[in-house]
Structure formats: structure tokens, C-alpha cells
Amino acid sequence: MRRTIILMTVLLSLSINAQEIKSLTLQDAIVYALENKADAKKARLQIEKGEYEIQEVRSRALPQISANGSLNYNPILQTTVIDGAGFGAPGNTIQAAFGQKWNSTAGISLNQALYDQAVFVGLKAAKSTREFYQINAQLTEEQVIERVANAYYQVYVTRQNLTVLDNNLKNTTKVKDIIKGQYDNGLAKKIDLDRTMVRISNINTLRQQTINAVTLQENALKFFMGLPMDTRISIPETEFEITPNALSLTPDTTIRTEYLLLKKNEQLLEYQKKSIEAAYYPSLSLTGGYNFIGQGPEMPWFRKPSDGVYWSDFASIGLNLRIPIFSGFGTRSRVSQADNKLASIKVDLEETKLSLDLQYTNAKTQIENSIVSINNQKENAKLAQEVLTNTNNNYIQGLASLTDLLEAESELVVAQNNYTTALLDYKLAEIQLIKAKGELKTLTNK
């Protein structure tokens, strides 16, 4: 219910004016993607498909009722040779034709499976298939969440880099204005002014490249969300706050969606094997039918005995028993193939568990390293800002060269970009850690 309210709020906000800038939190982006991205929609359709498959298998255990009818014309009746003794002509052979030129039947028949091992196994397998689709839909949602979160933070970092360049351009422009004033008054060299102009030109070029990168990454985010491309978005800075993570306990990877999906697939293969083995068991079914038959020298429809056409009914009830005896070892071969598939998926389960444990270990290590890097880069950026401030004051007082000032500006840009990159590394590792703990869905509840 809460997700529905959030989604309605996001949809209403995004539909008011596509050209208006929308503040988009990570939770908003994920909720929107889960409701609108094609992958998530198709996963829900797969669950619906599973329900239909269950209904199909269940129908095999229900009575099969059908109506039937036929109309036949016999231009030449088959004759039968019989002993004439029964007709008062002993010693003679009589050739007689039985039947009528026309006959028509209409009736209803029923077939009910009383015991069929394949049907019983199929019902269990169908229910397991539904669970398989549900787990697969959950895995698809987690993949959507992971892609959206990664793209979301990529956009944030590139925008932060653009902010750094904007500040750098602003500061360098101020320096250029100061040098130009000095040059106009004969207090500065033209080469210093030219170097500053080149610096500004380079910053503008890099800034344009970064703007283009932001656009491309925003488009990627919109695609992963299923959001219209003409929607303008903004990301609040609070989305990049560093939050503590539980790193002490190793999660149980056997509850991860990837592992559960393989386990469910293993169960389906076991049912497949049992379905094949059902060929060894006998089957029993109940049959019944009730029919009318009309016969005469003319087409029986709408005819009466006065026309030489007679109608009569007949019915039957029976049991059909089938006991398999020998199938040329075909069933045994199919069972062996099913065993081979089960052995293969057990190997996949072991490999998947090892891979999931590796993902958690790597994410944990990356988190720890990123925290150290963030602290170092934050202090480095702070120090670079102090160096630039002092160098700028010294340049104004003639105690530092232009080269020193430009180098200080470059070092500040590098330090700030390194800090935002460290933040991105942390956030991407955080997503992997949340994924390794099987808690990606919690990102929709922040």
C-alpha cells in the first residue's frame, strides 16, 4: 500500500510538466522503475502465466466430457455370408446385407482419470512452477533496483564533478579579471593573461564534456526507470550521505534469490524425473457414453418410423486399465537423463553459493577501503582549498607566481574529484553489500 502511494505521488509529480525539474530520490526512482520498467512488467506476466499452467494441469484431473455426432451414407452395404439353417434353408448358404443406407449418431462421452501418477506429479510440479516464477520476478526486481541505484549514483557523481568545474571556472575567471586589470595598467605580462585564457578555455572544454556525460548518464537512468526521456530530474545531495553498515556477520547466502531460484529449479527437475517414472505405473480411467442412433433408407434427420427410419438409444460404462510391461528401455534412459540434470544443478548450487560468498566478501572489503579513502580525500580536499586560498592571497600580494596559483587550482579540482569518486565507490560497494545480504528491496522503504 505504501509503495502504491509513493508511486502515485511520483507519477503525479512527473506528469504535471515534463520540462519542470523534478527532485528525484533513490526511493522514488526505484519505486517508479518497479512499476514501469519492461523487465518488471514481464516478470509479473510470467507469474500470471504460471497460474494458467496450473489450471491447464489441473484440468487433466477433472472429467473430460465431449459431445459427438456423425452422419453416414452407405451406397453399397457390406454383405455377410451365413448358414441358411437358421433361416429354414439347411444346407444352403445365404448372403445377406445388414444395415441401412443411412445412419446417424449423436451422443455424449465422459472420461475420468481415476489413477494416473503423471497427473498427480504434474499438479505438484505446476504449483512449484508458480513459485519459480514468483522467485524469478523477485530476482528481476532486484536486478532492476541494482541497475537503477548504480545509474542514480553515477549521475550524482558526474553532477558533482560538474559543480567542481563550475567553481574552478568561476575562480579562474576572477584571476583572469585581476590579471587583465594588471596588464591594462602595465603591471602584468601578456603571457600571464594568455596562460589564464588558455586555462579557461580548457576548463570550458572539460565542462562541456562533463555536461554531455551527465546527459548520457541521466538518459541511462531514465531508461532503467522506464521514465520519459524529456523529463528533467535533479538529485538531492542528501542522497549521498554515508551511512553505517553491518559488516560483522556473514549473511546466509542460501536465502539469496539467486540461490533460491536454483533450488526451485532443482525441485522442478525432481518432479520432471517423477513424471518420467510415472510411465512405470499403471493408469486407470472411467469411461461412459450415452448415444442415439438413427437408421433407415433415407437421411435419418427429422424422419419417423413411418418413413422407414428408426431411432434408438444406447449407453456404456467401463473401466480402462493400462499396465506398462516393456518400453524398450526408453523410460529408463529418460530417467537417467533426468538424474544427470539433477547432478548438474547440484554443482551449479555449490558454485553459486561460493560466488555469492565472494560477492559479500568483496563488497565488505570495498566498503572498508572506501571509508578510509573518503576520510583521506575529504581531508586532502580541505587542505587543497586552504592551499589555494593562501596561494591566491600571496599571488595578489606578489609573493606567488601565476604558475603556483594555477597549480593550486588544479590540485583542488583533483582533490575534490577524488573525494566524489571515493563517495561513488562507497555507494556502489554499499549497493553490492545490500545485495549480498539479500536486502535490496529495503531501498524502496528508505
Automatic annotation (TrEMBL):
<dbReference type="Pfam" id="PF02321">
    <property type="entry name" value="OEP"/>
</dbReference>
<keyword id="KW-0812">Transmembrane</keyword>
<comment type="similarity">
    <text>Belongs to the outer membrane factor (OMF) (TC 1.B.17) family.</text>
</comment>
<dbReference type="InterPro" id="IPR051906">
    <property type="entry name" value="TolC-like"/>
</dbReference>
<keyword id="KW-0472">Membrane</keyword>
<dbReference type="InterPro" id="IPR003423">
    <property type="entry name" value="OMP_efflux"/>
</dbReference>
<keyword id="KW-1134">Transmembrane beta strand</keyword>
<feature type="signal peptide">
    <location>
        <begin position="1"/>
        <end position="18"/>
    </location>
</feature>
<keyword id="KW-0813">Transport</keyword>
<protein>
    <submittedName>
        <fullName>TolC family protein</fullName>
    </submittedName>
</protein>
<keyword id="KW-0998">Cell outer membrane</keyword>
<dbReference type="GO" id="GO:1990281">
    <property type="term" value="C:efflux pump complex"/>
</dbReference>
<dbReference type="GO" id="GO:0009279">
    <property type="term" value="C:cell outer membrane"/>
</dbReference>
<dbReference type="GO" id="GO:0015562">
    <property type="term" value="F:efflux transmembrane transporter activity"/>
</dbReference>
<keyword id="KW-0732">Signal</keyword>
<dbReference type="GO" id="GO:0015288">
    <property type="term" value="F:porin activity"/>
</dbReference>
